Amino acid sequence: MNSTDVRKRITIKDVAQAAGVSTQTVSRVMNKFSYVSEETRQRVETVVNQMGYHPSTLARSLIQQRSYTLGVVTFGLKYIGPSRTLNGVADKADELGYMLLMKDLDNFNINRIDEVIDSLLARQVDGIIWVAPEIGENHTWVEERKEKIPVPVLFLAMRPRPGIPSVATDNYQGAVMAIQHLLDCGRKKIGHISGPISWWEAEERKRGWRDTLRAAGLDASDYHCTEGNWSSASGEQAFTQLLERYPDMDAVFVANDQMALSVLRETYRLGIRVPDQLAVVGFDNIAESAYFHPSLTTISQDLQLLGEQAVQSVVEMIQSMQQDQPIIAQSKFIQPTLVIRESSL
Amino acid sequence: MNSTDVRKRITIKDVAQAAGVSTQTVSRVMNKFSYVSEETRQRVETVVNQMGYHPSTLARSLIQQRSYTLGVVTFGLKYIGPSRTLNGVADKADELGYMLLMKDLDNFNINRIDEVIDSLLARQVDGIIWVAPEIGENHTWVEERKEKIPVPVLFLAMRPRPGIPSVATDNYQGAVMAIQHLLDCGRKKIGHISGPISWWEAEERKRGWRDTLRAAGLDASDYHCTEGNWSSASGEQAFTQLLERYPDMDAVFVANDQMALSVLRETYRLGIRVPDQLAVVGFDNIAESAYFHPSLTTISQDLQLLGEQAVQSVVEMIQSMQQDQPIIAQSKFIQPTLVIRESSL
DNA sequence: ATATCCTATGTTATCGATAACATGTTATCG
DNA sequence: CGATAACATGTTATCGATAACATAGGATAT
Predict the structure, then answer these.
(1) B3-27, pLDDT tens digit by residue?
(2) Min distance B78 CA to chain A CA atoms (Å)
(3) What is the mean pLDDT of residues A224-235?
(4) A178, B188, B202, B210: most buried, per Cβ within 10 A?
(5) pLDDT tens digit string along B55-105?
(6) Which residues interact with strand D by a CB < 7 Å criterion?
(7) Are B90 and A104 inside 8 Å of each other by CB?
(8) What is the phi/psi pair of residue B161, to 5°?
(9) What pLDDT is stored for residue A6 in this prediction?
(10) CB–CB of A93/A70 below 8 Å?
(11) What is the model's pLDDT at position B148?
(12) Does the beta-carbon distance from A90 to B80 stay under 8 Å?
């Protein structure tokens, strides 16, 4: 509508012409570290500011064969976990001068995976971070494609495997801490509500529960455990079922806080006193858990840090690659912490 | 380490050579809609598949002056609200063939805003979506810069203003629904715990509360309202304070579910029966609210839809711009819905 | 004083694709 | 049957920047 609306992009040529130098000189001024006389530098800089010139990262990416952009593939952004992780990724990427090209996958469709990877590569991302839980065999595609992807790929929340770079919370250790805490409180009959056991994280948490109890000479069979799907609704069901099976249980370790919330709700409804009759420990430490009643003892995992570490690792790999050094595929573990609140005192 | 690791990008030239045609012909095959003989098409396609060729979106963006990428600026990704919105944005963008270039701002720093916009523009984004709440005067920069940004910019969760495209939940209407519901239940003394009143959303919700009560000839002054900062911790304080001021209150409308959670917790601690003595209504309908006890009546806002609408609008604006049509700056409102649960029956 | 290096800047090639134009072949039409 | 249109393909210019190379003057070294 407005005729001044026709804002053409200002290019390096425009600047060069206005400053009476070659584009190469402008490029030198913009990128520092090259011979330019102080006088010329000033003149060019003045013009750059006046015209409001900003170099096209796009053009630069093309010639330099790197984009200073990381691809991030998320799975279920709508859940709070991935988005907190993404926050860490975003922060660290910003700090290290990278932008994020994002793709959210709603369901794990193998066909879409190739498509997504290709679309990221077509935009020259320098590395890829995969923010997706390991479920069943959904990681197998990696082994198959690993050799074909020309940039470093890192996996979050995946079981550590030699040769595959990953960063994950130590879910096993978290569970061990939770159970140890309950044992320290004198509990002996500790049930478990697990997540969907095809998820690696659910499996690890369950394994921590089982191993710790058995090491203490206590019961921990599948009989003392029921399975939910992470949702509060499923937690309610799983708890009812567990209570039937294991009526004299004196504590329950719930694989996430959402499910623990409905456990608390049910205990209230059934008149079970928490923590006197039944201690409850969750996992994740979502913001609300401090305000459940009773407030929830839980395992806090630092998802922000998880995301940051992921970026750190990928960027290191990118740098190695750039210097033609071999890439060392590391697997990092982030230790969770125990947060003791009313539900287990 | 592995010598086959040196995976060079396959370019259109490689394909052209292998297929014995010009690059232009390959381009024609890739982009359809142009004269290519069936025979040539087949031959090229075979080579493309064999070599695993994927065109560089980067190079294409450069020549076509458009990237099929949207810039998304978020403010506080760590909160569940923005990330649910982002989910909607991601889905719709995917559906319409766009990728997302993301930047998260942790605090509202005017200097950084320019920098962020520039970095997005340097990467040729076709449009920008601003996923940030309107707080105080933080929108003023827009009016100043609007003319200088060569692509459509849309704002989420901002007060509708003529000439500035935006999409927002109708917070006022949501509050009206909440209060109307309480009135229908026979409540007459309805207090309010607001969000930080410098936030537009907090202001709107409060306004809906006030107007509806006054229209019904009931009390609604600042005396019947206290202010929190959205967090559960602040909700506890705000509730304690409100209860002192307004002891015979028979209902409270809390500006978000997190704060409502601690209100429920406090009522329990103080022996106030919900809903008999005090009805509670929240806002947002977070996943957990159905499992609070009592379960929370709340206003559900469809953040997913919000994000989708935003992308829809921006893409429409991009298309108008491409056809040199004037851009019509629309402001859309998304209607929230009332979810009745135990806390207000 | 001549060879050599450092400084300062310009010129040309290049990244990977598409746009614009050119050219030749085969149908179609009056 | 010659003109015109539709088809099929190639050639050259271009997007906006940087890499690689070239050039020339002044400082330094021997």
Answers:
(1) 334 457 899 999 999 999 999 999 9
(2) 5
(3) 96
(4) A178
(5) 999 999 999 999 999 999 998 787 777 888 999 999 999 999 999 999 988
(6) A 9, 11-13, 23-24, 26-27, 30-31, 54-56, 58-60, 62-64; B 20-25, 28, 34-40, 59, 62-63, 65
(7) yes
(8) -135, 140
(9) 46
(10) yes
(11) 83
(12) no
Rounded distance between C-alpha atoms, residue B292 and residue B276, angstroms: 16
Are A100 and B102 an interchain contact pair (Cβ–Cβ within 8 Å)? yes
**Residues B258-274 pLDDT 10s:** 999 999 999 999 999 99
Q: How far is B147 from chain A (nearest CA, A)?
A: 7
- How many interchain CB pairs under 8 A, A with B? 172
Return the ∠ at Cα A99 (arms to A98 and A104), rounded to 5°: 130
Query: Nearest chain A Cα to B54, which residue?
Result: A122
Domain ranges of chain A: 3-55, 69-169+304-334, 171-301+340-344
Q: What Å value separates CA B29 and C1' C27?
A: 23
Confidence grade of residue B108 (pLDDT, cut at 50, 70, 90): low
CATH class for the domain made up of B3-55: mainly alpha
Q: What is the CATH number of domain B67-169+304-334?
A: 3.40.50.2300
Report residue B2 as tokens: 């592995």
Residue A71 pairs in a beta bridge with A101, A128
Mutate which of B77, B117, B267, B321 to test chain A, going by most A C-beta atoms within 10 A? Answer: B77
Show residues of chain A in contact with B90, CB under 8 Å: 74, 77, 102-104
For residue A231, list chain B residues with Cβ-Cβ distance below 8 A. Answer: 287
Q: Flag the least confident range among A133-142, A197-206, A249-258.
A: A133-142
The count of C-alpha atoms lying within 13 angstroms of the C-alpha of B102, restricted to the half-sphere facing its C-beta, is: 34
pLDDT tens readout for residues A59-69: 999 999 999 99
Task: Quick: pLDDT tens for B230-260.
Answer: 999 999 999 999 999 999 999 999 999 999 9
* Cβ contacts of A326 on chain B, cutoff 8 Å: 1
Class of domain A69-169+304-334: alpha beta
Q: Where are the beta strands (DSSP E) in chain A?
A: 69-75, 99-105, 127-131, 153-156, 166-169, 190-194, 225-227, 251-254, 279-284, 297-300, 331-334, 337-339
pLDDT at residue B208 is higher than 80: yes
Same topology between domain B3-55 and domain B67-169+304-334: no
Do B67 and A56 lie within an 8 Å CB cutoff?
Answer: no
Interface test with A, best of B2, B7, B104, B107 (most A CBs within 10 A): B104
The residue of chain A with its CA nearest to that of B320 is A1
Q: Which residues pair with A73 in a beta bridge?
A: A103, A130
Q: How far apart are CA A227 and CA A257, in angstroms?
A: 14
B106: which DSSP letter?
A: S
Report angle CA A50, A55, A60 to the nearest 5 degrees: 165
* pLDDT 10s digits, A162-211: 989 999 999 999 999 999 999 999 999 999 999 999 999 999 999 999 99
Distance CA B50, CA B69 (A): 28
Are the C-beta atoms of A335 and A172 separated by less than 8 Å? Answer: no
Which bases of chain D are contacted by protein, using any atom under 7 A from a CB? 7-12, 14-20
Across the interface, of A62, A119, A290, the residue whose CB is closest to B62 is A62
Query: What is the distance between the alpha carbons of residues A85 and A287, in angstroms, rounded to a whole number?
Result: 14
CATH number for the region B171-301+340-344 comes to 3.40.50.2300
Give the mean model confidence (pLDDT) for residues A215-233.
96
Distance, CA of A341 to C1' of D9, in Å: 75
The pLDDT confidence band at residue B156, using thresholds 50, 70 and 90, is: very high
